[in-house]
UniProtKB/TrEMBL annotation:
<dbReference type="InterPro" id="IPR001584">
    <property type="entry name" value="Integrase_cat-core"/>
</dbReference>
<dbReference type="Pfam" id="PF13683">
    <property type="entry name" value="rve_3"/>
</dbReference>
<dbReference type="InterPro" id="IPR009057">
    <property type="entry name" value="Homeodomain-like_sf"/>
</dbReference>
<feature type="domain" description="Integrase catalytic">
    <location>
        <begin position="105"/>
        <end position="171"/>
    </location>
</feature>
<protein>
    <recommendedName>
        <fullName>Integrase catalytic domain-containing protein</fullName>
    </recommendedName>
</protein>
<dbReference type="GO" id="GO:0015074">
    <property type="term" value="P:DNA integration"/>
</dbReference>
<dbReference type="InterPro" id="IPR012337">
    <property type="entry name" value="RNaseH-like_sf"/>
</dbReference>
<dbReference type="InterPro" id="IPR036397">
    <property type="entry name" value="RNaseH_sf"/>
</dbReference>
<dbReference type="GO" id="GO:0003676">
    <property type="term" value="F:nucleic acid binding"/>
</dbReference>
Length: 221
């Protein structure tokens, strides 16, 4: 059975994002065999059209689809790219972002989900800086003054700051492997105190087992 170019284009349009209509459903709706629809889809893909599998996310696009997306969006500005993504649908948006980032050499950071400008590791260190007793509330007069303060802060952090995440030992003590003996002694003292005054404990004493090496804080270089 012959179909007009207009009918064929309209049916193929239903395969495009954001519709991504499955071939089986489209066949029932249009009265066209699945084999014919699959042939049309293959022909359209060969011509460079974006026709992912139904409900496919970014990982469901073929290499040809991704390459075509990069080529088609390469000359678009931010406004045009946003409109293009809205027109193509969510799968196109996700694929374009991922492929474009890779093309531009942008690598993923340690940012929290959905917060592009927040690095939890840096934020935690900034908080420690600002809550130290010596933090200058009025700021720094010069860049050299700031650098000198940070150098002193790093020394304090490594040698004096007892970090809660590593059982209240200093990063230097952990780095030198001294924490096991220190924590064992604390455990012994706590056990003695509990034996003398059991009424002060409703359960076990504090856990003084060393934190695994893959966790906890590190020294500031």
């Amino acid at each position: 059975m012959a179909y007009s170019p207009e009918r064929k284009a309209a049916v193929i349009g239903k395969m495009l994002p954001p519709n991504n209509m499955p071939l089986g459903r489209l066949a029932k709706e249009e009265g066209i065999s699945v084999a014919t629809l699959a042939k049309w889809r293959a022909e359209a893909r060969a011509k460079g059209q974006f026709l992912p599998e139904a409900n496919a996310g970014p990982e469901g696009w073929t290499s040809a689809d991704k390459l075509a997306a990069v080529i088609e969006t390469a000359s678009l500005n931010a406004v045009e790219l946003g409109e293009y993504c809205r027109r193509r649908g969510i799968p196109m948006k996700g694929t374009t972002m991922k492929v474009t980032m890779e093309r531009l050499g942008v690598t993923a950071s340690f940012s929290r989900p959905r917060v592009s400008n927040d690095n939890p590791f840096s934020e935690a260190l900034f908080r420690t800086c600002k809550y130290t007793p010596g933090w200058p509330t009025r700021g720094f007069a010069t860049i050299d003054e700031a650098r000198a303060w940070v150098q002193g802060f790093a020394t304090w952090y490594n040698t004096q700051h007892r970090h809660s995440a590593i059982r209240f030992v200093t990063p230097d003590q952990r780095h030198r492997g001294e924490e096991k003996a220190l924590l064992a002694e604390r455990h012994r003292v706590y056990q003695m105190a509990r034996a003398v005054h059991p009424e002060r404990w409703s359960g076990q004493t504090r856990d003084w087992q060393p934190i695994p090496l893959c966790q906890g804080s590190c020294r500031l270089l």
